Amino acid sequence: MINFQREGSLSNTHAGRDFESLAQNYFVQQGVSLEKQVSLPLGVSSRKKGHVFDLGNTSDGEKMVVECKSHKWTSGGNVPSAKMTVWNEAMYYFLLVPEEYRKVFFILRDYSERRKETLGEYYIRRYGHLIPDGVEFAEYDKEDGSVRWLDVS
């Protein structure tokens, strides 16, 4: 049986929550206060259903939603295809978010020596046509705690 558990973490859920906390702390350092688990009513018609974003701010100030993903290349250095489907789904939700919201996709920097690019760069190159206008990609480097904003144009 193959174990898809994140190495060094209690569970994938814990890894995701820990990464959300890293993202939240990053934004606090930038002077942006975000709450965890923020729900917005979204839909393609008049029927809307609440979608929960990892982080967000829906108050009168700068409205913002953030999706956090700490996915990596597979252990063999291959594309994590199922994870790319999850990223595509996140782009769809961003498409439905009202225009007055800032939309940030906060991802873990994972570099592939073989491919000479990060997973974020790969996604933008391969799936750029699915990224809605206005979505920002922030790539978090766990080694030094820095964030690089990727060009999605």
Read across the widest sheet, the strand sequence of neighbours is 1-2-3-4-7-8
CATH class: Alpha Beta
- Portion in helices: 25-40%
Our count of domains comes out at: 1
- Written as H for each helix and E for each strand, in order along the chain, the element string is HEEEHEEEHEE
- Looking at CATH, which topology would you report? Trna Endonuclease, Chain: A, domain 1
Radius of gyration: 16 Å
Treating each run of at least 4 consecutive H or I residues as one helix, how many helices?
Answer: 3
Q: Classify the beta-strand content into a percent band.
A: 25-35%
In the predicted model, the low-confidence regions spanning at least 5 consecutive residues are 1-6
Report the end-to-end length measured between terminal Cα atoms.
41 Å
Q: Give the quaternary arrangement of the chains.
A: single chain
Provide mean pLDDT, rounded. Answer: 92
Question: Tally of extended strands?
Answer: 8
Structural class of the helix and strand makeup?
alpha/beta
- Major sheet attributes: 6 strands, mixed
Principal-axis shape:
globular
Would you identify the CATH architecture? 3-Layer(aba) Sandwich
Task: Give an overview in words.
This is Protein NO VEIN C-terminal domain-containing protein. It comes from Salimicrobium salexigens. The protein is of the alpha/beta class. The chain has a single domain, classed as Trna Endonuclease, Chain: A, domain 1. It has helices spanning about 10-30, 80-95, 120-125; strands at about 35-40, 50-55, 65-70, 100-110, 110, 115-120, 135-140, 145-150. Strands 1-2-3-4-7-8 form a six-stranded mixed β-sheet, with helices on both faces. The longest helix is centred in the first third of the chain and has 18 residues, at about 10-30. The protein is globular and about 45 Å long. The termini are far apart. The model is unreliable at about 1-5 (pLDDT under 50).
